[in-house]
Design brief:
alpha/beta; Rossmann fold; Tyrosyl-Transfer RNA Synthetase; seven-stranded mixed sheet; 16 helices; 51% helix; 10% strand; binds iron/sulfur cluster
Amino acid sequence: MSEDKRIILDPFGTTVVEDYERLFTEFGIRPLKPLLSEIPNPFMAMRRGVIFGHRDLERVIEAMKSGREYAVMSGIKPTGEFHLGTLMTAREIIYFQQQGATAFYCIADIEAYEDNGIPFEESEKIAINNVADLLALGFDPRRGYIYRQSKEERVKDLAIIFSRGVTLATIKAIYGERHMGLYLSALIQAGDILMPQLEDFGGPKPTVVPVGIDQDPHIRFTRDLADKFQNKFRFIPPSSTYHRLIKALDGSYKMSKRDPMSYFTLDEDPEIIKKKIFNAFTGGRPTAEEQRKLGGNPEICPIFDLYLFHFLEDDKEVIELYNDCKHGNILCGEDKSRLAKIVMDFVKEHQRRKHQYIDKAIEILKTK
Ligand code: SF4
C-alpha cells in the first residue's frame, strides 16, 4: 500500500487493511497490547494479537476486576450460516459473558434487509440456525438477551430519538453516499449498542462491543450519540475491541458467496470442508525442496490464520508452527492434513451440539 493511500473502514462495503498500525494514528484506535496484563484471563484472540485494538476498554477491565456490572453487546447479520468471521464475533461475546458480563446478542435483520436485501421471512429462518450455533458454542441464554432488531421496540425507539441529533451531512461524512435504509440501519445499530444501558436493563453501565475493524464507523457514530444524549440517558460511551479480518481460503480478504471455495461454514459437510482446506492457497514455496531450504510465509497463509484465529488452543503450539513454517521444518501438505483433521473434528462435534439446540433457538425467537 502506498503511503498516501487512505484506509477506508466501511461496514457496508469492503474493508482491506494491510497496515494495522495506521489505525492507531489515523483513527484513534488504541493498541490492546499494553492492556493485556491488566485483563483477567485474556481471551486467546487477545493474547495472539488477533484482537489488536480497542476504544476505552479500561473501564470494562475495571468492571471485570471489581465485579461491577458491565455488558457485552454485538450482533450478526442473519445472511447465512455461521462462517469463520461470525465465529470470531460469537466467541468474543461468549468470552465476555463467561467473564461475568451480561450479554446481548442482536440478530441484525434490519441491516440484513437494508444492506443485503434479505427479506425478513428468510432472515427469520436463518436466525434460528445462527442462534443454535451461538448456543452450541457456549452462549448462556439465562445470562443473556437474544433479540431481533425488527422486533425490539426499545431499539427502534432509540433510533427515532437519535435521528433528531444527526444531520444528513454528518451521516454522509461517516458512511458516504448511501440509500436511506443504510442510514436508518446505522441509527438502529446505535440503538442496539446503547440499549443495554436503558433502565429496563439496569441503567448505565460499561459496555464492550467486540467487532471486526470494518465496523468501527458504527462505534464512532454511537459514541457521539451517547455524548449528545448524555443529559437524557446518562449513557457511558460504549467501549469496543477490534479483531483483524481472517483471510479467505484463497489468501485474499474477500470471502464471497460467489466463490464457495473461498470460505466454509460450520454447517457444511466436513468432507467438503476438508477438500476446501486441501485446495486453499498457502504461503508455501513452489517445491518441497525450496520450502525446506527457504521456509514458508505464514504471514500470507490462510492455513496459518485458521490455526491462529480458531483451531489451536495452545499459544506455544502456534509459536512452534510459525517457527517450523519459517524454518522449512514443515511442508504445506502435512500442515493442511493436520488442520483438516482438527477442523473436521470441531465441525462434527459442533453440528452434533447445534442439532440439540434448534428447538431452544426456535423457542427464544418466538418471543424475540
Ligand atoms: S507450512 Fe503451513 S503455515 Fe506454512 S505456508 Fe505451508 S500451510 Fe502455511
